[in-house]
Write a structure and sequence with these properties.
36% helix, three-stranded antiparallel sheet, alpha+beta, flat
């Protein structure tokens, strides 16, 4: 169970953080939230979609990591198997509050007093590792409103459409994924010049296009799943 505490030197001076984030609950998930600022870089590595938040019912941008709730196919033998790392994973086990305050999950398996990266220097300053985390958290903090505005614009322009994934794997098993959405290529192409110009000036047009194109990476995800299944079949 998580124990989220406001980070401070007096309480957390001796804590260290392992970077083996793949063992955390958050990393063992088939979806990870994505910020607008990440869309361009992540769209060449992961299929990106929109889905509705279970908490708010609002659309959020996500990267798809697997086909079932706790499946992350980019973890291979306990190691991260991609050249790209979403900020939502990179910041673990830290969280950023609404006023840019920094919290730490002291019950995370990443946190200990033995092996890992120090959070603070002996004089109470952020370590070099922690300075990188602070930059990551700052990007998350500043990027939330930009991402919400991007998604709202897609909605306002009626550019969001549902996608259903029907997949048959090499062992004959099947999965049907619902609740995913993408940017409609047809509707995007039919927008008037002024609306396209608005999207472009806000930096949304390129993000919308690459999100749509990233769906092609679902085939890469299927290949990863089939490789995993073939290994199991060989063992049996």
């Amino acid at each position: 169970m998580a124990s989220i505490e406001l980070l401070n030197f007096s309480q957390h001076a001796n804590l260290v953080v392992s970077e083996a984030f793949e063992y955390t609950r958050e990393a063992n998930s088939n979806i990870v939230p994505v910020l607008l600022s990440e869309v361009g870089s992540l769209a060449t590595h992961f299929p990106l979609f929109l889905t509705k938040s279970a908490q708010t019912g609002e659309f959020v941008c996500i990267a798809l990591m697997g086909f079932s709730a706790e499946e992350n196919l980019y973890l291979l033998n306990g190691l991260w198997n991609s050249d790209a790392l979403p900020l939502a994973f990179e910041r673990l086990p830290f969280h950023v509050g609404p006023n840019n305050e920094v919290y730490i999950d002291t019950h995370s398996p990443l946190v200990s007093q033995q092996d890992g990266k120090r959070i603070f220097t002996p004089t109470g300053e952020p370590s070099s590792y922690m300075q990188k985390i602070l930059q990551c958290l700052s990007l998350i903090h500043t990027g939330r409103d930009d991402t919400i505005a991007f998604v709202q614009t897609l909605q306002d322009m009626q550019l969001i459409e549902p996608v259903q994934l029907d997949v048959t794997f090499c062992d004959g098993s099947q999965t049907k994924m619902e609740g995913l959405y993408t940017v409609s290529d047809q509707r995007l192409n039919s927008l008037s010049a002024p609306l396209l110009d608005t999207l472009n000036k806000r930096g949304y047009l390129s993000a919308a296009i690459v999100m749509n194109h990233s769906m092609g990476l679902v085939q890469q995800l299927i290949k990863k799943k089939n490789t995993q299944l073939e290994a199991v079949m060989c063992e049996n």
